[in-house]
Amino acid sequence: IDRYAVIGHPISHSKSPLIHGLFAQATGQVLEYTAIDSPVDAFRDTVMAFRAAGGRGANVTLPFKLQAFELATDPSQGARLAGAVNALKFDGDRILAENFDGIGLVNDIIRNQGVSLTGKRVLLCGAGGATRGAILPLAGQGPALIAVANRTAAKAHALKADFAAHVDLQTGGYDDLAGLSFDVVLNATSTGLSQDTLPLPPGVFAPGALAYEMVYGKGLTPFLKQARTAGVARVADGVGMLIEQAAEAFQWWRGVRPDTRPVIERLTVPLV
Ligand code: ATR
């Protein structure tokens, strides 16, 4: 049987085995997909052991996305620009690597949230790996503007330089957002996992804006509460992004595109 896995630490809460199991069932693909908890200091050994035991591919989650990039022999352009990888495919000695998080995000926004990005003003909060992975797929939709705001403004400015050949980012600190508003505001900081609130001016949300939290399963995070308080009606967490990136990986591995809709309906919980 063809084996796949998600590798992370911790990993017990991962929904990927359920998602890929549902995809396999729906498409008639025969495969096994498990969760592997890797010791923090032994990611490489964990991957190599899985491959040696017949693993065909793997998803990679926190905290190993950067190490997975290092391990790859054939990273995609998106993975190279992100410097991070969330999916591996084993082909003999080669380790092909992709980062599907950004395309998963974009597909969720467009297909599931029903929000077009074309001509829109988009704000990414945060300048870490989540933002890096999102920039190119967002830029591909032809937004009017992509801005990146970060607590450490220098990190946002560094992104502007790194992506200069592909997209003209507007970058700065949260202070620089005064007087600006955006149609899509994305939280790509790790505050979705803490109780910290970003210092966003309330006017940052344009009328009818979508507020999107990339973390999933945390209910109304401080960012989403902040958006609600500012009058934003359309809020979403990252469960659709998770399922859409999984669909990309499944197609990459198996050559079959699963229907994400029933899985989204099954896994989405109301944000209250
Ligand atoms: P990831 O790969 O998940 O994006 P990361 O690279 O560690 O993780 O980046 C975390 C992001 O969350 C950063 O943009 C970080 O801001 P700094 O670069 O200034 O550290 C942001 N972040 C984390 N905690 C934050 C907080 N309390 N307030 C604002 N931003 C925060």
How would you characterize the largest beta sheet?
6 strands, mixed
Helicity range of the residues? 25-40%
Rounded to the nearest angstrom, the radius of gyration is 18 Å
Count of discrete alpha- or pi-helical segments spanning 4 or more residues: 10
Tell me what the structure shows.
It is a single chain. The chain has 272 residues and is an alpha/beta fold. The chain folds into two domains: 98 residues, 3-Layer(aba) Sandwich (Rossmann fold), CATH 3.40.50; 138 residues, Rossmann fold (3-Layer(aba) Sandwich), CATH 3.40.50.720. 36% of the residues lie in helices and 23% in strands. It has a six-stranded mixed beta sheet with strand order 2-1-3-5-6-4, sandwiched between helices. Helix 6 links the parallel strand 7 and strand 8. The longest helix has 16 residues. The protein is globular and about 55 Å long. 46% of the residues are buried.
Helix and strand arrangement:
Blueprint: E1 2-8, H1 16-27, E2 31-37, H2 43-52, E3 55-60, H3 65-71, E4 74-75, H4 77-82, E5 87-91, E6 94-98, H5 101-112, E7 121-125, H6 129-139, E8 145-149, H7 153-162, E9 170-172, E10 182-187, E11 205-213, H8 222-229, E12 234-236, H9 239-254, H10 261-267
Parallel strand pairs: 1-2, 1-3, 4-6, 7-8, 7-10, 8-9, 10-11, 11-12
Antiparallel strand pairs: 3-5, 5-6
2'-monophosphoadenosine-5'-diphosphate (ATR) binds at residues 126-130, 150-152, 155, 188-191, 196, 198.
